[in-house]
Structure formats: structure tokens, C-alpha cells
# Entry
Amino acid sequence: MSIAVKSPKGFINGRASHRKLSVLLAAALLTVALSAGALAETARGTVFEDLNLNGTLDDGEPRLQGIHVSNGRDIATTGEDGGYRIETRDGDIIFVIKPTGYRTPMSAEMLPRFHYIHAPQGTPEALKLRYPGLAPTGPLPEAIDFPLVAQDESGPFEVILFADTQPQSDMEVDFIRDDVVAELIGTEAAFAVTIGDIMFDDLALFPRYNRIMSQMGVPVFNVPGNHELNFLSPDDRYSLETYKRLIGPPTYAWSYGGVHFIAVDNVDYKGFDAGREEPSYRGNGMYEGRVPDDALAFIEAYLSTIEKGDRIVLFHHIPLRTYQDPDAPNINTVNKADLFRILSGHTVYAAHGHTHTTEHHYFGTDDGFTGDTPLHSHVISTVSGSWWSGPNDARGVPLAMQRDGTPNGYHIARFDGRKMSVRFKPASLPASHQMRILFDSQFHQMAAPIFRDVRHGGLTAGRITGDQAASTDVLVNVFDGGPNTTVLLSVNGGGTIEMTRVEEPDPAAHELFERFSAQRKPWVKAEKSSHLYRADLPAGVRPGANTITVTATDEFGTEHTAHAVLEMEKAAP
# Structure
């Protein structure tokens, strides 16, 4: 099924007729677009219920009132006849905002098709982009109609959250297929969302990736990251031409089960710097985290149509703030205050990727966000972990532990009315694997050269001597922990003590990357974790075998339990 477009010569399903464009004309249009912008036109059409699933508005099919249509800045609402009118400029993407109780058409790759790209001349050939952009769509059609199909969205539902699948090669697409997609085939989730860095610059991998993701059997929504860019673009305007052609609009919204989801492109591309030393299309692009003015206007317009108590879920690739470096513009959103002003008064959960760490942040009145509850910003675990680094398992898939010691994986959000919870799922591991218990007793624990010949796991083994007991700490990495997580430790079924959250590298990640340096990407190293918890070894440990039990209550109030066995030899007399 596809969007029905009526041209002056009749209906064209899915795409408008293409026109060839000379290089000189492309260059001229590029100059005009950059200096003066394109003239506005008016797009019009009808949103209707597609009863016979043919994608075309037929006699007798209901025309839907009160449905929102956007150009990425403004929102128009359909009238009694299902019709809308909205200002449109060259380069706009016109899209319908899927309401609760309906679905949009789907491509063969399970990509929602709910938009029309207005690019009369296509991507300027003068840009000489490495990967193909948009073909010319010709003049604005007489009508751009959007079909919707009724579906049941009552009751609780789940959403799969991916970030940074990020394959650099066909082999790494294999890893996505075998490590994540295979275990999700047949999922009962309503849909999945990938929150940026879907690719790793090689946009030619997109078609195969899309085909593989479709095997889950659920719609796959996407959000662009900094690795979906056309690096040869002179600035942000043409930086997502390939993404738009293959995926669709970079900023848009939809509703499901009464929850409102907003996808935002917050990667502000600064353009290709040919003057940098050893210029290349791969490494010469600069960017920062910024929500563009058009996207801010779109969010504000959309939120004006939503009740204050409704749940808002925001997706954008670059986090609002990160523990790694809160001041770095390429890993934080520099104009988050503008976003907070617009979002204030709403109940907001925001999910991001980008840093290959797992983090929770809460924003309140001190940050410019006002509401009954703080805005919850969640940097979720990445599918690629340490960019597919590390030793291979029996399947030939890298261990890919993240820089903060979290296993590579994904999250699953559950919605029940206005209630929401999120759980972490490590890839190809049991869902119960939510933490790692370590014993830190060696003073030079993080000094890899000293222990360069030790076997893997030697620095974190569950065996100490009685002489080491006084200097041993229990260290727990709660993979999706955060500032509101509580972690309790007990020994041999005795009383509990609360562990303290610390920000430091996970020794297990440090050891893995050092021991297998030949199998990791050169930039990968252990970074501080925001979900590491430390406590002195309790006095209840006795010579022989001891059961260590850790109970963690995470940011969403879910309780997790893990055990470890610690052996202690008697102290020297």
C-alpha cells in the first residue's frame, strides 16, 4: 500500500513522475535555495479510511475528520470532508500524524509510509553526493491523500527501543541479524523504533538492513543520527537526502494506544570541511546536538493538540545531557532549554542513543522544565555495544560490551494507560541478566600492563584470601541503573546494606578491552559508568564458600536479584 498522489494527469501511487535535471540547473537551484529559500505553495488532500486497502480514495470510503497533517513546522487539521490545506515549500515533507486506532500503509520492509516528499527538482546534482539522494518529484500534485486503516489499540502494549545498530560492513549487518533480530522474530510488540546511528556512514547498507529488520514482523520507525549523514552536503539542509529517500521524514509524530510519540532530528550538521588535514568524506563533517527551529515549531504545534496528562515519548539521537562530558556540544543538546520551555507541563519520557553508555537523567525547574514530574531522559543501551568490538562467541558474534560495562542489547517499553515502564534486554542473554557482581581487592586493578598475562576474568574472579578481606570491595554494575536505583547487598542470607553509587570505569569492561585489544575498534576504551555501586565486603563473609546476594530496584520500580559465590581462604596465621 502507498500514499495516493493525484497529479494533473491522474493518480500516481507512491511516487510522482521524475524529471531529469542538468548539473547547471541543480547548481542554480542550490544557490537560490541557500540564499532566498523556495516559494511557498499550498498542498491539499484528504485523509480517509482505506477500506479496500488499495491506497486510493474510492467512492464510499469514510473521510476522516480531526486528523493532523504537517509540513514539519505547522499542523493542519482535517475538516468534516477529511480535507486539509497546508503551506508547502521546496524540500518539505508532508506527512499525516497517525492517530490512535489507525495504522498507516507499510512498505515491504515494514517501514511506515505516511508521507510525501516535495522535491520538485530533487537533490541538486551539483552536490555530487556519494550516496543517491532524492529524484525529482515534479510540481506539487493537485492532491496528496493519506490512507489510514482502522486497528485495535486497546489495552497494554510494548515497544522495542533500539539505538546505534551501527554496522560498518556487511559482516556487521550479520551481527545485527543474528544477535538481535533473530530473537525478536514473532515479537508481540506493537512496533520498534531505532533512535539513530542506524548505519555507520556506509549508506549502501541501508536496503539490506531494512530487509533484515522487517523479519521481526512489526512496523519499524526510525530516527536519524550523525552516521546517516550525507557528509558532502555543504550544510544541514541536504545532509539527510539519502535517509529521506530510503526512510522518510527526519522529524514527525504518531500516536498509539493514547500515547504520543515524537521523533526529532537533533543532529545539526555543520558541513564538510575540505580544508581539514587529509580530507575525506568520512571524517570531515562536524555537527552538534541541536533541535532546529522548524522542529521546535512542530513540537509546539503538536503539543497544543494534546491533553496535558497524556504521555509524551520523545526520540532523538543526541542526548539532552550525558555524564561523559556535559559540556561537549557533539554529545549533548545545546538548546535543550528551548525544548524544555515547549515541553513544560507535559509528562515526558525521552530516549536517546549516541554515547554507547546507558544513563538516566532527570530535568526539573532548575533546568527550565516544569511539570508534575521531572522530564526523564534515558540514554539507552546500544545494539552494537562497543561498535561490535571484542572476542567472538560460538556464533561468531562479538561480545560487544559497551564502554560502561553494559552488555550490548536493547530496551522494551511497556505502556498501560498513562503508566510506563522500561526494561533492558541484553542481546542473546537471559532477560534476568540485569547486573554483574565483581570483587575488587587488588590495588592495581585497572593497571592492565601489570596483569598483561592474566587469563580473562582473572581480575574479577570470586576468590580472595583472608588477608585481602579487609581491602576487598563488592562492585555491582546494574546495567540500567541510575540516580534513583537502590542496591542492597547481603551475605549468606543475612541483613542487607545499601550500596553507594559511584562514577568510575567498570573493571570488567577495562579488562575485556585490554585483553582483547586486537579485537576492538581502536577508539574503544572503558569509560566511567553511571550505574556502578560499591560497598565494603561485609563482615559476614567467612572462610569457605559464601553466597553474595544483590537486590536492585531500578528507575521504574522493578526489582532484580543476582547472586555470586565468593570463596575466601583462611588468613595467614
Remarks:
- Residues 52 and 61 are 9 Å apart (CA to CA).
- The chain has seven helices and 32 strands.
- The two ends are 80 Å apart (CA to CA).
- Residues 170-184 form the longest helix (15 residues).
